Amino acid sequence: MQVQDLPRFYHASAQLGNTVDLMEDEVRHLKVLRLNNGDPVHLIDVEGHLFEGKVMDRKKGLIHVEQLLESQAVERRLTLLLAPTKNINRTEWVVEKATEIGVTKIIPIQCEHSERDQVKVERLLRIAISAAKQSKDLFLPVITEMTPFEKAIAQESGQGWIAHCMDGDKTSLRQASDSTGNQVIAIGPEGDFTASEVVLAKQQGYRGLDLGAKRLRTETAAIAAILAFQMANP
After folding, report:
1. Which residues pair with 183 in a beta bridge?
2. N or C: more exposed end of the chain, with fewer CB within 10 A?
3. Looking at 34, 55, 71, which one is the last position of a domain?
4. Is the separation of the CB atoms in 37 and 15 below 8 Å?
């Protein structure tokens, strides 16, 4: 049965039978849509659930969760390790598009050539929420605080790939994207990863990733890589 298309909201821990209070941005969205008490809405959470609920108090953003409509499981995790760009708008664009494509986790990484040493995770999450609702996705990527490169590559499970511009043994994006199972893709800053960072990643089991002959901007490289992996394993 086709699910009716209703205004969609986000709550991290929505549960059947509970009344949840929406975060401030979602309350604002509720008011912009001029929804009234008693109106039906959809809710998504971080676990791939789609609920139907009812507006209980539009001013306070209270939604009663009445029915579970759909539940999806993540069969293949795709994690993006991303060195944030100096222009934060470009990083925010990556978060938006990566959410639409279906990345399950985004870890901003601090590298030797990094142009930025901090990010506002709450803002990135708001961008991801908006993108998930727009694309009708049931999943939001987990977005972490800025993490040192050496810690990030050591803590994530799955086949790791590090995209860099140096010579050496690298797998083409076309070949790498056919890999099955959980995948972790590391995209460095505009100045590229350093030789020592590449060595460190390979010691953790990462393989070099060749994105082609052109030298891509950080955000272009990130989207090209994750899109190739998702298209090969939809």
Report:
1. 78, 159
2. N
3. 71
4. no
Domain extent, residue 97, equals 78-232
In this structure, the answer to whether residues 62 and 82 fall within a common structural domain is: no
Strand 40-44 relative to strand 78-82, pairing = unpaired
Q: How far apart are CA 19 and CA 56, in angstroms?
A: 8
User: Which one is predicted more confidently, 136 or 9?
Assistant: 9
Query: What pLDDT score does 63 carry?
Result: 95
pLDDT tens per residue across span 185-210: 999 999 999 999 999 999 999 999 99
The whole-angstrom separation of Cα 85 and Cα 230 is: 23
pLDDT in tens, 121-161: 999 999 999 998 888 888 889 999 999 999 999 999 899 99
CA 129 to chain centre: 10
Strand partners of residue 73: none
Neighbours of 14 (CB within 10 A): 23
Q: CA–CA distance from 138 to each of 5, 18, 102, 224, 228 (Å)?
A: 14, 19, 10, 23, 21
Per DSSP bridges, beta strands 207-210 and 170-172 are parallel
Lowest mean pLDDT among 24-33, 149-158, 161-170: 24-33
Q: Are residues 17 and 131 in the same domain?
A: no
